[in-house]
Amino acid sequence: MGPLAVERVDVMSTLGRVLAEPVVSPSTIPPWPNSSMDGYAVRAHDTGRAPVELAVVGRIIAGSMPSRPLHAGEAMRIFTGAPLPEGADAVVPQEDVAADNGRITIAASVSSGAYVRPAGEDVRAGDVVVQPGGSIGAAEVGLLATLGYSQVRVFRRPRVGILSTGNELADLGTEPGPGQIPNTNTYSLMAQVIEAGAEPINLGVAPDQLDAITERIRWGFDAADVLVTSAGVSVGELDLVRDALERCGAELHLWKVSMRPGKPITFGTRGGRPVFGLPGNPVSAMVTFELFVRPALRRMAGAQSLHRPRISARALATIENPGSRRGYLRVTLTPDAKGFGARLTGDQGSAILRSMVLADGLAVVAPDTTIAEGQAVDVIVLRSLEPRSR
Questions:
Q1: Nearest CA-CA partner of 268 in 279, 278, 254, 287
Q2: CATH number, domain at 45?
Q3: Which end of the chain is least crowded, N or C, by CB within 10 Å?
Q4: 279 and 182 Cβ atoms separated by less than 8 Å
């Protein structure tokens, strides 16, 4: 699975997209030395024997150019962002100057370059200012606008069909009937798709009927670049997704992974389009999406960085992973002078969605392993580690 096609979009449509070509600056920014303070443009040499008195011979505001060069023994009133006159090489802040009747007195000498932003301080003509393969953020949008790019070439976002299966699911906006539960996975998975830089397509909820699931899967393959299903991939009587995929001509390459949570998972392709069959429990679905689906979507979106960052943290309390499967356990991360400390969010049941709400990361723990308090644990970081409400 490689990157999708490239398209040209307006700059304000690029946020979160992946750049497909280098952005080269056509100009030098700023194009001329300018003042970083309100004050007076001077020749630094003239202040070498301060205190010194200089004649004020002009006024330069932002958005205008100096009327003439600055000569020895002169100063010009200047405002933040205004270009320096030829001959000036420093600015004296207005609070450091005594002004009287067209003349100023400067009490202390200033150095060349003081309070001056040099030409090209930001970028120079010909500089590659944004590299391809990275996601475009607010700063990149601002820089593109600064350089006059109204449109840029980006990779197309993958379209991802999301299908939930199960007789027990009541969709959002409907009241659950007897024995039913709210449909969680459609909406958490669609949100994860958006976070990964892709576009979700809601394929709805299919009951545990082979014909109904097959029809939705065919729809998904026609409408999307990637198909993601949840539930129905285990070995029970009503686990029909595998049969439905094979009915639709999908070739299955993977069935079950030795991990906790999320053992029942399948991966296949149909006509080069990938399909991921995820477990039905909400936490299992979200964790397996993070580990398997998200990197694939990032690659298809053209991103060079496919995986979440990992850190080594100290266990703030015992972290246990009993059994024969590798654990991806939800933890909170607490910064301190030594780095980060990790603590389980609580019970690690695969249906406890609040454990994902509380989690800053996933602790990766080998099978049948106990990490004692103070020992190092590898953590996949899921979110910004800024302080937030719990």
A1: 254
A2: 2.170.190.11
A3: C
A4: no
**Beta-strand pair 376-381/361-365:** antiparallel
119-145 exposure pattern, b = at least 16 Cβ within 10 A, e = fewer: bbebbeeebebbebeebbeeebbebbe
Tokens representing residue 270 in the block:
């149909």
Residue 386 lies in a domain: no
Beta pairing, strands 34-35 & 116-117: antiparallel
Whether the ω angle into residue 261 lies within 30 degrees of 0, i.e. cis, is: yes
Question: Would strands 339-344 and 310-315 be described as parallel, antiparallel, or unpaired?
Answer: parallel
What's the rounded mean pLDDT across residues 358-369?
97
pLDDT band at 387 (very low <50, low <70, confident <90, very high): low
Residue 205: both structure tokens together: 């909820």
Q: Which amino acid is at 291?
A: L
pTM: 0.85
Which contiguous run of DSSP H or E holds residue 284? helix 282-288
Interacting residues of 269 by C-beta distance below 8 A, sequence separation 6+: 250, 251, 253, 275
Please say if the pLDDT value at position 168 is more than 90.
Answer: no
Q: How far apart are CA 369 and CA 261, in angstroms?
A: 15
Within a domain: residue 42? yes
User: What token pair was written down for 107?
Assistant: 């009490």
One domain for residues 20 and 145? yes
Query: Can you tell me the distance from the alpha carbon of 330 to that of 379, in angstroms, rounded to the nearest whole number?
Result: 9
